[in-house]
Amino acid sequence: MNLSCPVSFEFFPPKTDEQRQQLDRTAEKLRSYQPRFVSVTFGAGGSTLNYTPETVRHLRDDFGLCAAPHLSCMGGTRAEIRDLLQRYKDMGCTRIVALRGDMPSGMARPGDLRYASELVEFIRAESGAHFHIEVGAYPETHPQAEDALADIEHFCTKMRAGADVAITQYFYNADAYFAFVDAVRARGIDAPIIPGIMPISNFSQLRRFSEMCGAEIPRWMTRRIQAYGDDTSSIREFASDVVAALCRRLLEGGAPELHFYTLNLAKPTVSVLERLQD
Ligand code: FAD
After folding, report:
1. Is 40 helix (H, G, I), strand (E, B) or coil?
2. Which ligand 1 atom sits closest to the C-alpha of 52?
């Protein structure tokens, strides 16, 4: 497939047979877009600890994809994180997405490392230059930040701690991305900042999720989608047009590539990618 830009895809680790089959169908369809890499999210604690490494191995061995694990420090001890890093090294992984994570309800202790910047520092101290490290960025400000400027400063600290690249939280307002990149560049950080793109599949779910993670859905988009009522095919067409237009604007404005949050579904991402083909 001839795309005008490099892409990467994000998946979550499946936990049931049905989810496994869905991921396989999605990976099969999306690999034809020759992603630079795919990443696999991570949920802290207990049995979920194995799901991410197993999914990384599966995507690499059975689909030939360059697969990178996400690693979050929330709830983990230094020793646990060290073990996981060693496990990824032994598997031959050289790329990692390093995050603070969020405290799952019921979890009693936050972990040895408080912020993603401390995790990046720890990974560099433990593994030197072995891993290519990507971190999260928030063009519309992380929901727990004291304020937008403090958030930008913390982001820069995280990059200076040794991160190579940042991937943003999703957003639908290109200006937020450009303003964030300008602010970060003005502070001397010139690492690539890759926009995270969320194709729209289930709008009510997206609205709920966006409130939690601090991503704004523009009023005009919400009103238009509401006006389509139950006409799901018009909603899909409209949503794909809007997201593809956002991608084009980002690329024209200098975004180096695009990272798609697939939610393990092929259709919404393919529908956007088809609109971006040469
Ligand atoms: P940080 O960079 O540590 O920032 C968190 C907050 O702390 C911000 O408000 C920041 O301003 C503040 N802060 C940072 N440093 C300081 C300081 N020194 N003093 C005071 N405040 C400070 N979550 C998962 O659980 N699993 C995943 O797989 C996952 N994948 C993600 C992938 C991407 C690309 C993105 C953007 C997010 C992902 N998340 C994931 C969500 C992420 O874990 C949450 O958004 C989390 O709340 C913040 O993570 P962070 O790494 O950005 O944190």
Report:
1. strand
2. 28
pLDDT score of 98: 98
Q: Give residue for tokens 């599949």.
A: 201
Alpha carbon distance 170, 198 (integer Å): 6
Classify residue 107 as exposed, middle or buried by CB count within 10 Å of its CB (0-12, 13-18, 19+). middle
For residue range 148-159, what is the model confidence (pLDDT) as tens digits? Answer: 999 999 999 999
Atom of ligand 1 nearest to the CA of 42: 28
Under 8 Å between Cβ of 241 and 275: yes
SS3 167: strand
Tens of pLDDT, residues 256-277:
999 999 999 999 999 999 999 9
Pick from 18-27, 98-107, 215-224: least confident: 98-107
Q: Indicate the domain borders of the chain.
A: 7-276
Pull the structure tokens for residue 111.
């972990």
Closest CA to 23 of 56, 69, 71: 56
Q: Is 153 considered catalytic here?
A: no
* Residue 54 token pair: 């197993």
Fold entry, domain 7-276? TIM Barrel (3.20.20)
